[in-house]
């Protein structure tokens, strides 16, 4: 017997998949590159040198524009737009049913909206330098000045706070999304397994938050 798969089912699965691959991998790479700003004591190299070199290496990759457009921007736009559709159509009931999963559902949607605004701001600010009154230089176009560009923005307490909120929202959204992905795709089966996997994803979220904030602070210290 043939099974009719609804368009909504396919779009939702694609939404989940793009949140893990490639966007999840891009998030981890982003934190790794930003952590270069911490410097290396063993190699006696400063964060300025290591971060600028890391940005330069990324920009010198073959077909980097192709990778950015098809590997990052297209999945990101789809995930963000369809996520807003899901949020609009959602029916949160945390106020009526005070269960943990109900609140996680709400927070996942709230952080999704925050990320839509934050990532738009982040890309326009650092990738293109198009936010009026802020940075006017693209990090990608000036990799030799990348550290100084980011530092100049983060020295503004308001901008730094915005990035702290963005980092926390990103790591929660990713960690909780990873948990939901493992459940919905039949990888974490059974109540006990799902609970343990949920704890593990929570730890992942906390660790990534600490890494992201620590890397951001490296630019101003």
What does this structure look like?
The structure is a single chain. The chain contains 8 helices and no strands. With 221 residues, the chain is mostly helical. It has a single domain (7-218), classed as Fumarate reductase/succinate dehydrogenase, transmembrane subunit (3 helical TM bundles of succinate and fumarate reductases, Up-down Bundle), CATH 1.20.1300.10. Helix 2 packs parallel to helix 8 (191-218), helix 4 packs antiparallel against helix 5 (100-127) and helix 7 runs antiparallel to helix 8 (191-218). It is globular and about 50 Å long. 22% of the residues are buried. The mean pLDDT is 93.
Features:
globular; 3 helical TM bundles of succinate and fumarate reductases; mainly alpha; 221 residues; 8 helices
CATH structural class: Mainly Alpha
Number of domains: 1
Our estimate of the beta-strand percent is: under 5%
Query: What is the CATH-assigned architecture?
Result: Up-down Bundle
Going by helix content, strand content and strand pairing, the class is mainly alpha
Biggest sheet features: none
Average pLDDT confidence is 93
CATH topology: 3 helical TM bundles of succinate and fumarate reductases
- How many H/I helical runs? 8
Distance between the termini: 64 Å
Q: What is the 3D form? A: globular
Radius of gyration: 19 Å
Summarize this structure briefly.
With 221 residues, the chain is mainly α. Helix content is 72%, strand content 0%. The protein has a single domain (7-218), classed as Up-down Bundle (3 helical TM bundles of succinate and fumarate reductases), CATH 1.20.1300.10.
């Amino acid at each position: 017997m043939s099974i009719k798969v609804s368009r909504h089912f396919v779009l939702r699965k694609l939404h989940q998949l793009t949140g893990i691959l490639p966007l999840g991998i891009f998030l981890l790479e982003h934190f790794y590159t930003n952590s270069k700003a911490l410097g290396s004591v063993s190699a006696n190299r400063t964060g300025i040198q290591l971060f600028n070199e890391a940005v330069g290496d990324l920009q010198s990759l073959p077909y980097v524009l192709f990778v950015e457009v098809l590997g990052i921007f297209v999945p990101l736009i789809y995930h963000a737009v369809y996520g807003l559709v899901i949020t609009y159509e959602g029916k949160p009931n945390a106020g009526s049913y005070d269960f943990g999963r109900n609140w996680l559902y709400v927070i996942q949607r709230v952080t999704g909206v925050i990320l839509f605004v934050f990532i738009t701001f982040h890309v326009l600010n650092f990738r293109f330098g198009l936010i009026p009154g802020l940075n006017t230089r693209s990090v990608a176009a000036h990799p030799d000045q990348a550290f100084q560009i980011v530092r100049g923005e983060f020295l503004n307490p308001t901008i730094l706070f915005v990035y702290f909120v963005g980092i926390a929202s990103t790591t929660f959204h990713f960690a909780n999304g990873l948990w939901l992905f493992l459940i919905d795709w039949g990888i974490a089966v059974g109540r006990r397994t799902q609970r343990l996997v949920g704890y593990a994803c929570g730890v992942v979220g906390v660790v990534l938050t600490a890494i992201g904030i620590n890397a951001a602070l490296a630019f101003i210290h």
